[in-house]
């Protein structure tokens, strides 16, 4: 019985430690994150309704432009 309590306590401590590490790794989104994101636009549905075509814009920060 004592070893079961110790095992449960150890598991709880490990889980709490993992939750704290995960919470610390989250951060707010920055302006650089926003300008680095790919953008999806101009969705078009095929006449039969089975397909969707769309445009993906890829940012190129070095050239200061967006590639489509």
Structure commentary:
The chain is an alpha+beta fold. The protein has one domain. It contains 2 helices and 3 strands, in the order H-H-E-E-E. Strands 1-2-3 form a 3-stranded antiparallel beta sheet, with no helix packed on it. The N and C termini lie far apart (64 Å).
What's the SSE blueprint?
Layout: H1 2-25, H2 31-36, E1 39-45, E2 52-60, E3 65-67
Antiparallel strand pairs: 1-2, 2-3
Which structural traits does this protein have?
three-stranded antiparallel sheet; single chain; 68 residues; alpha+beta; 2 helices
Largest sheet: 3 strands, antiparallel
- Measure the end-to-end span: 64 Å
What count of helical segments does DSSP give?
2
Helix content: 40-55%
What is the total domain count? 1
Over the alpha carbons, how many angstroms does the gyration radius reach? Answer: 24 Å
- Measured by DSSP, the beta-strand proportion falls in 25-35%
Shape: elongated
Report the oligomer.
Answer: single chain
Q: Going across the major beta sheet, what is the strand order?
A: 1-2-3
**Helix/strand/pairing category:** alpha+beta
| Chain-averaged pLDDT | 77
Q: Which consecutive residue ranges, at least 5 long each, have pLDDT under 50?
A: none
Concise overview:
With 68 residues, this protein is of the alpha+beta class.
């Amino acid at each position: 019985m004592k070893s079961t309590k110790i095992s449960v306590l150890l598991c709880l401590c490990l889980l709490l430690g993992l939750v704290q590490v995960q919470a610390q790794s989250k951060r707010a989104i920055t302006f650089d994150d926003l300008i680095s994101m790919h953008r999806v636009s101009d969705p078009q549905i095929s006449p039969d309704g089975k397909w969707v075509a769309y445009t993906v814009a890829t940012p190129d920060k070095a050239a200061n432009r967006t590639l489509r």
